[in-house]
Amino acid sequence: MRFRPTCILLAAAMFLAPTAALKAQQPVISRSFVSNKSVAAVSLRPQQMLKNPANALLPIEVAKAAGEKYLGMDAAHIEQAVCVIEPPLGPQFFYALFLKADQPWDLEKLAPEITEHTEPGEILGRKCLVSIDPAGPCFIVLKETTLIAASHGMLLKLMDPNVEKEDTVLTKLLAGHTTNDDLYVAVDMEGLRPLISLGMFQAASQVPPELQKFFNIPMLLQSGELTATLDGSLPSRLAFHAASETEASQVSQLLAEGKEQIKAQMLAEMQDSLAQMRQSGDPVQSAMADYTERVSGVYLDLFQPKQQGNTFMMFDSQQAGGAQVGAVAVIGILVALLLPAVQAGREAARRNASMNNLKQLDLALLNYESVRKEYPAHAIYSQEGKPLLSWRVAILPYLEGGDGLYQQFHLDEPWDSDHNKQLIPLMPAVFSSPSSILDPSKGKTNYVAPVGEGFVFDGTQKATRTRDVSDGTSMTVILLETSDEAAVTWTKPADWSYDTENPLKGLIGLRPGVFLAAFCDGHVSAIDEMIDTEFFKAILTKSGGEQVNAP
């Protein structure tokens, strides 16, 4: 939606008033942006916020620089940013981000940091940047001024003209909201109930019985809406809707009880320190105790849910004290919205860098095999059959700049000999995962080989040849990225072993939702942590004969 100038000639206004009124009634978030299964939608108006003199304290310069660096456009040219998501209940995450600008977008100006996981392609006949990472966004421009960043599956849902649009709790909320707030958030609580129920079930055992009644609150809610405007020109409100007035009354009662319980608990926890302050004999300390006790419940008292039918307001900036609460809420929600986006961008960059590391290690293994007609064993062995040094040392000559370090090793001594252990801090950067918090100078690596019977590395001196990989090189894992807890000293002949009781042990936790695996043909994939364990075991073996598709 384009913003009209604030000053309009009277004559033009007389002729255009009916059209303007009609436009003003348009929903803030277009129905075309929302899939039938979407459960949440967020609208943010960067241009309106950044160009408003009342918002001078916003990091305008940072927004401008970040927009130009990553999007090829000053953020002040973005009229509206809309994000919609579906419940993250399956292996795929369906989401979409729409950026409507006052000038054309150019996909070629998007920064490599956000597009390096994509390649040029088409979706439903439209040219776009298609993600080769299942979790990464595709990028497409519609009508020149709208940039869409969305998961592949979400794009198909939104762009397919044969998909019939349905009325849902979320779409009904969006249809009724027509004001151009700085921020608008709408959530379908009904659609999120399976996820909420799962979370509450997991938390129930850790919550005292007297507090478990409050778990009923989200189950009584049908939807929620937040509106926020920084300069106060429009009301900032947080409202929840129940399916009926009776259920709304139950929620209001539970919230009131919860607030009083929190206040009582706060005062109980402070009593000892307040008593000490009052008994100190210092009038300032005594006054500070009185002040602390007085204000401890002020912000809680500002939250006075006001029920109107099946709707109740958690706060309203037009009510007493609402402006302060509104400002706090806006700041908190903006942080909540922006931080995940920043973190997701950083994680995507770290994941891409880590995938590149694995590709380099994989290529070194392939070059080793090309020269020697076999892969290295998992360790360099002594004449007596004792494992001395890792395969990671054996492939050093096939890594850029690694031959000089390789020449420094005493290959007939164990990894922790007086000489060899001095080389541990010299671990090449390619062995250091960008997602790890471990100090690289300590020589710990997250890149390991799966070692076990039937794997490329079987834990013996016997080396595998390419022709031994009868399951297919594109379907056989040769390297994995582990969590920091499972990291090993890079020179040590230690790797990762398959645990039948916990097949993904040591692989989960370094990055959200996935772990990385390199295959014998040189490609690297992000593997969903919800992967079927039988399928995972199948891609670990080199000649098991299982019928699987390449991940």
Automatic annotation (TrEMBL):
Stretches that traverse the bilayer: 321-342
Residues making up the signal peptide according to the UniProt record: 1-23
InterPro entries: DUF1559 (IPR011453), Pilin-like (IPR045584)
Occurrences of domain DUF1559 (ranges): 343-496
Alphabetically ordered keywords of this record: Membrane, Signal, Transmembrane, Transmembrane helix
Protein name as it appears in the record: DUF1559 domain-containing protein
Organism of provenance: Aeoliella mucimassa
